[in-house]
Amino acid sequence: MIRVENLKKSFGAQSVLNSVNLNIKNGEITVIIGKSGTGKSVLLNNIIGLLKPDEGSIFYKDKDITKLKEKELNSIRKKFGVLFQDAALFDSLSVFDNIAFPLVEHKILKKKSDIEQKVKETLNLVGLNDIENKMPSELSGGMRKRVGLARAIVTQPEIIFFDEPTTGLDPTSSLSIADLIKNMQMHLSTTCFIISHDLSLTFRIADNIGLLDNGSIVEFGDKHSFANSSNEIVNNFINAYKIGESL
User: Fold this and answer.
1) Number of Cβ within a 10 Å radius of residue 37
2) Beta 55-60 vs 63-64: how paired, if at all?
3) Other C-beta atoms lying within 10 Å of the C-beta of residue 197
4) How many helical (H) and strand (E) elements, i.e. helices and strands, does the chain have?
5) In what order do the strands lie in the sheet with 29-33?
6) Sheet harboring 63-64: ordered strands across?
7) pTM (2 d.p.)
8) C-beta of residue 185 within 8 angstroms of C-beta of residue 30
9) Is it the case that residue 161 has pLDDT exceeding 90?
10) What is the rounded distance in angstroms from the CA atom of residue 155 to the CA atom of residue 244?
C-alpha cells in the first residue's frame, strides 16, 4: 500500500528521521512504536503529506507523493483517514457536523437524508448511538476518540492513520479502543498504520511491528518475530515497558 524509502527529515540542525525504510502492507495493521521524541509523529506527517521530507521517497501504490503538486496530493489524501492524537474535533460543531464534514467538504454525498443515514451507520460502527446532537465538550475522552474514528472512516478510506490512539485514556478505555480498531479494520477490510508507545495495544492488534529509534527503523516484522527478537534495542524497550507496567 505504502512504501517509504531512505526518508530523511531534519529541523534546523536536529536530525529527526535518518534513512527510514518501511513497507505498509495492504489489508493489515502496521504499528510503529518508539520512545517519546523519536520522530513517530514526524514520520506519520511525512507519509500523509503534512510535512515534506528533506530526502527520500514515499510511494502510494507506486506513485511518489513527495513529487506531487498540491492538487494531485489532495486527490490522494481523499483516500486517507486520520485519527489524530486528541481526535482534533471541531469544538464549535456537533458530533453530527464533525462526522458529516468530510462528506460535505468533498461532495461525496449531497442529499441531507443520505448524509444523516451515513453518519448514523458510522457512529453505530464505532459503538455510539444517539449522540449526534452532542457537542465535543460533552463527551468523555474515549467517546471523543470514537467520534474522531467515525469521522476518519466515514468516507471509507483505503488506509487509516492513527496518531497515539490510546494516549490519555484509562486502561479499560484503551483496551476498548484497541478492540474497536481491530474489529473496524476487519469489518471494512482496510489498511491501518498506527504510531504508538503502547505495547499492550500493539501486541493485541498488530500484524506487523516496527521500532523507531535514533531516526531509523531498527527492527520490523510480524508481531511474533518482533516479540522474540534478539535485537538489544527492542528487548530494552519491551523490558522497560514491562517494568513501568508493574510499578
Assistant:
1) 9
2) antiparallel
3) 17
4) 9, 10
5) 80-83, 159-163, 191-196, 29-33, 208-213, 216-222
6) 14-24, 2-11, 55-60, 63-64
7) 0.89
8) no
9) yes
10) 39
Rounded-to-integer distance, Cα 120 and Cα 85, Å: 24
For residue range 121-149, what is the model confidence (pLDDT) as tens digits?
999 988 888 899 999 999 988 889 899 98
Q: Which three cell numbers stand for residue 23?
A: 513497507
Residue 246: its pLDDT value, please? 44
d(CA 227, CA 223): 6
> Phi/psi of residue 40, each to 5°?
-60, -50
30 Cβ neighbours under 8 A, 6+ residues apart? 24, 191, 192, 193, 194, 206, 207, 208, 209, 210
Pair 164, 141: CB distance under 8 Å: no
Residue position matching grid coordinates 518508539:
34
Reported as a single tens digit per residue, the pLDDT across 15-62 is: 999 999 999 999 999 999 988 888 999 999 999 989 999 999 999 988
Residue 95: pLDDT band with limits 50, 70, 90: very high
Measured over the CA atoms of residue 140, residue 90, residue 84 and residue 207, the dihedral's sign is positive
- Angle in degrees, CA 26, 31, 34, rounded to 5: 150
**Cα distances (angstroms) measured from residue 143 to each of 160, 174, 199, 210:** 18, 11, 22, 28
